[in-house]
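Reopening this ticket.

The earlier resolution said the output was attached, but the attachment link was broken on my side. Pasting everything inline this time so it's all in one place.
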Amino acid sequence: MKITKRYISALVALLFSVPAFAQVPAPAPKQSKPILLKGATLHVGNGTVVENAVVGFADGKITYAGPQSGANLNGYEVVDVTGQHIYPGLIQPNSGLGLNEIESVRATIDWDEVGQFNPNVRSVVAYNTDSDIIPTIRTNGVLLSQVTPIGGTISGTSSVVQLDAWNWEDAIVKADGGIHLNWPNMLIETGNNDPEAAKRLARMKEQREEMLTELAALMRDAAVYKAGTHDNRNLKLAAMAGLFDGSKKLYIHADYGKEIVEAINFAKKYGVKDIVLVGGGDALVVADFLKDNNIPVIYSGVHALPSRPGEDVDMPYKMPYLLQQAGLLVALDYDLSIHGIRNLPFIAGTSAAYGLDKEQALSSVTLNTAKILGIDKQTGSVEAGKDANLVVSSGDLLDMRTNNVTLAYIQGRKISLDNKQKYLYHKFENKYKAQQKAAAIDAPATSAGE
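Inline output:
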């Protein structure tokens, strides 16, 4: 084969340009000078909206957020965002982001530990800051995530991370904030018209009782361990100690109403101080019980089908509104797939179309989530003293038709909004535009009379 200069040039371009664009963008450098965003509509995250607002931040912290008339512009680099909207960075709870890259490749999956009881497993140490999925999520305004293990009865501990870091240590916002308990199912599927179904059902019920007995023993041991002093450290019991003084939350994953009540009563029986319900398919059925026990809900499944044949077809869409009307603190999570987390703003938008007002819907993916995760003093709203986790969009962030994030800052650092999908889009857009242009040039000219 004859090697030409054109062939060599094409090969060099392939080797050096493609990998550069395909890689995850490097984390942004620390904020070096005060910045002030000017002229946008500010959505604080707590229900307040400020027109023609100014948001200033320095050293990664918000210094001012309010009307332009009260701002001091001296010493700030002014960024004009007139006509756009400023939002707090969105927060995704209950997420396997950074723990699962390619589901068909076992080596990229690190969110499920062997065994049933693993409270000592720290999910954050497996968090992959170089995941290709993270930049695609930031593009839609999601800037923080709760890294959550799955599997077993007690999956392990979760941590909250920000999505622009070199490693998991740099990413941590709140480490080991809660333990995740997957409550054993009461409803057991055995199959229809199966002669062995009764035996299998009895066996499954027996296994469930055994699991609950083991769980109760673990809770008792952990409570005793917390109360005493020990020469030898027990990692599992030590990891659970925070449940009994409120320094750690217990995230109970359950959907069926009776399971929710059973699980919460079980946890309170052993002195667990801070409980959060995750999933909550039947949360509305037991709303009074949840309110009486001050249990917040991380609701999963807004973009889902009704769970029962008799329910309204739009029941999942209006569930956040109904739960809020029942007096519950509600946050939303997008749990169908880690790739779908980019749709987090749009499930909030759906909730706004079915009962919540726009600012309440925004709170369900920002400040409410921060309160439930225990990071509301640091982030979740655009207020002075909090981290400068900010999103600027030229349109409504919660509307997939107009969502267009133009700027994003994490702790004051201006982050890259490039990602692999954008690169591929522009790559093939340019290819076909070039082909169309060449075809137009090569096409024979037609006379006016033809």
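Reporter confirms the inline version is readable. Residues 5-21 have pLDDT under 50 and may be disordered. Residues 36 and 191 are 62 Å apart (CA to CA).
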